[in-house]
Amino acid sequence: MNRFTPFSNAPANLGQYPEIRPKTSCFRKAYIAVMLLVVGRGLEAAARVDPTVRRIFQQLPDGFCLCLGVGPAGPWMVAKKDKKGRLRYLGWQPRAARAHLRLTIKNLASAMRLFTFQESTALAFNYDRFIVEGSLPQALAFMRALDRVEVYLLPKIIARLAVKRYPDNSELPGWKKHLNRIRIYLRAFFPDLIRVIYKNI
Amino acid sequence: MILPEFYDFCSRAKIISGENALEKIPGLLAGLHAGRPLIITDPGVQNAGLVDAVKQAMAGELESAPVYSDVPVDSDYHVVDKIAGVYRENQCDAIIAVGGGSVIDTAKGVNIVVSLGGKTLLDFQGAGAVRKKLNPLVILPTTAGTGSEMTLVAVIADPERREKMFFVSYFLLPDLAVLDARLTRTLPDFITAATAMDALSHACEAWYCLEKNPLSDALAFQAIDLICQNLLYVIQNPEDMQARLALANASTLAGAAFSNSMVGMVHNLGHVTGAVCHVPHGNCMAALLPYGLEYNLHRRGEIISQLLLPLAGPETYAATPRHQRAEKAIALIRQLNQDLHDATGGRHPRFLSEIRDRDGRRLVEKNMLPEIAEKALSDGARVPNPEELLADDAHMVLEHAWEGTPLDRTKIKTG
Lengths: 201, 415
Ligand SMILES: [Fe+2]
Prior knowledge:
The complex is a heterodimer.
Chain A: H1 26-49, H2 51-58, E1 65-70, E2 76-81, E3 87-91, E4 101-105, H3 108-115, H4 121-126, E5 130-133, H5 136-153, H6 156-162, H7 174-189, H8 193-200
Parallel strand pairs in A: 1-4
Antiparallel strand pairs in A: 1-2, 2-3, 4-5
Helix pairs in contact in A: 1-2, 1-3, 1-5, 1-7, 2-5, 5-6
Chain B: E1 14-17, H1 25-31, E2 37-41, H2 43-47, H3 50-58, E3 67-68, H4 77-89, E4 94-99, H5 101-116, E5 137-141, E6 153-158, E7 163-168, E8 176-179, H6 189-208, H7 214-236, H8 241-261, H9 265-277, H10 281-295, H11 297-306, H12 308-312, H13 314-319, H14 325-343, H15 369-375, H16 391-403
Parallel strand pairs in B: 1-8, 2-3, 2-4, 4-5, 5-8
Antiparallel strand pairs in B: 6-7
The structure holds fe (ii) ion.
């Protein structure tokens, strides 16, 4: 046998070297999928209720489509500004529309750190856990909206960990926060959600 | 020292520093298999005779190198494409950039085009477009401030779209950075002051921002130490080569530090003020640096108080009670601005309202501040800043920095 062709008999051994696949835990995936759904619906609702979030999305161009998710295989969250300039949550199919801005969390472990609020969005950004495709100013604007939505969706004790600065009474009065929170939760979960789930299935 | 949960650090340019550093360039270029460099510079540097000094230093071993000396202050990709043409016409195989931030960024852009082929820099936009080793690049910084010789970024304007294009790649780091006091000797005192304050702000921001890490800390510490020991001395003794070299080293150290741990709100507001009002970067940095420290004090008190050691030296540090160190560090930076103002005969601005152009016109008007504060939300440097900085906060800080009054601590929102 020609000893200078070491790879010639390689296929015979291939069975000993099984393909390495990244570990995916169904539980984690499901958890993040639910969180992304809540965030997506929360964004849509907050864009109507909260003036700060509304202003952020007003400044984005019409038809703007953004996608937040975990690489390489999801889950995802897609939202788009419709013709009337309102933000719409489109669901979890990344192919639902061509994204102008795509924020990809590099892996499931990083996403878990972010969505279990061990790491704030800003810190995750600093630690290079995101891949940003699209313009940076728009990514920054989206992150500001995300911070604001987290303040509404989460109880204070958790939201404090997720955002850089939890707004105090002077920035966002307590009564307004609670009122908006109720409005956002009502909008996010009741009438429309069934429509979105139906469309995605 | 807080060891961060995660950090990355990369700094791989060879640096030579010393009295006869320029003379070593031909030999080191030969080691990179290059023998016909194109010198890229701007008219100011050319007129100061620095290119001749560089050529003279290399004369023994290198035949005369072609020179392109028309890089404008706001360089754009047309300039880059033009210089790439000059490079190819002269069959060059390396670049020597002699100048400040604009020249260095332009040279990095030229290196992309001539190394990767193609006609224009526009072909290489987007993240990750530069994935290959480029041709040899030598950087000779002449301002002792920007630290661009240690950064992996090149910012080049696109005048048609009125945008800045960012090119980010480790391959944009030079093969060689040369620090020689002959290059900064002719720098006027007020520019020396402004650029050194830029370097100081790089080091301080690398020190207190969210991405700080042990390696960048070590570099930032040394940079601050060198600046504080030498800056005023250089303004008073402009011919002292040793002190000039110390400032050049400080700038490079600070560049390597902030290139890896990023900068925060001082640069966030500074970038935007520069873009809106066409103010020199170093002047913005000098005016804003004390406010960056003050604004983040409640989050980074311990870290900022450690800055007193390189700023004031061990005696003062030890003699100051622990809870007063941070305040003292901030006061010292304000004092440094004041001293530079006095030593340059008032040509070093202490506040934003004092920044004037050559004809004495004020560049930053108070009615521009809301616009700056709003646009600051779109600048990437806001992310590593420890405290949230929204438009209202930015406006509040800018107003104080404009008037030169210390921040009203009760107005800082702490959440
Ligand atoms: Fe700077």
